[in-house]
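Open question from group meeting: does this chain pack into something compact, or does most of it stay loose? Before anyone orders reagents, we agreed to write out a predicted structure and look at it together. Recording both the input and the output here so the notebook holds the full record.
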Amino acid sequence: MLVRPRDPNNIGAVARAMKNFGFQALTVVAVHPPVWSEVSSAPNAMDVLTNARVVATLDEAIADCNLVIGTTDRTRVEAKQTVFTPLELSRELAEAEYNLALVFGSEKHGLTNEDLSRCHRVMSIPTQPNCPSMNLGQAVAVCCYELVRNQAQTEFVPRPAETATAGATEAALQLLLDVLHQIDFVLPGNEPDLKRRIRSSFFRFNLSKYDVEMLCGILSRIKRGLDRNGK
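Structure tokens returned:
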């Protein structure tokens, strides 16, 4: 998934890198129309561009994904945050069949903090400190290669991933915020930060589909009770 890409040539290079390593599903998020219309070259990978999905928001793009990996350079990450390399994440992917989203930001600014808050994992390519960022097409090529290079050595069938989708998690988060508003827990101007913190906790707990369904059931019952009591 490419979020707000700025260079048509880079989009073509991404499509070619994807095709090199067996990736087919390209999603382009919030792309400026003239940029998308100028994409004209992806040698041997025009089918990736032709079948690409274009959406307005990252939330829409990742709604059905149960593992969202955001990419960034290490200078953008807090010291306390766990940052995975592509090789480390490839081991997790070998153990379970996720509906995976690999998310890259724009060439100029990368993913925003708000974008990264929607990702289950943060991944960074180990680069030199004096030159941490990479060209978008090259970064996609490195990540795609690392994520698939050990597949042939896998000796077991991956289990189905039970992690809740990003869309289901976001729905549970919104339901929780509705309840917190009703009990006056949310302070004026504090909702965006509170929302990011709760979402981060959800991802850290690695909620399953069952967990999210149960949480939504509990919150819905609480909300109905508050509604009956005029809260």
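Observations to bring back to the group:
The chain has two domains: 2-160, 166-228.
The beta strands are 2-3, 27-29, 53-55, 67-71, 96-97, 100-103, 121-123, 159-160.
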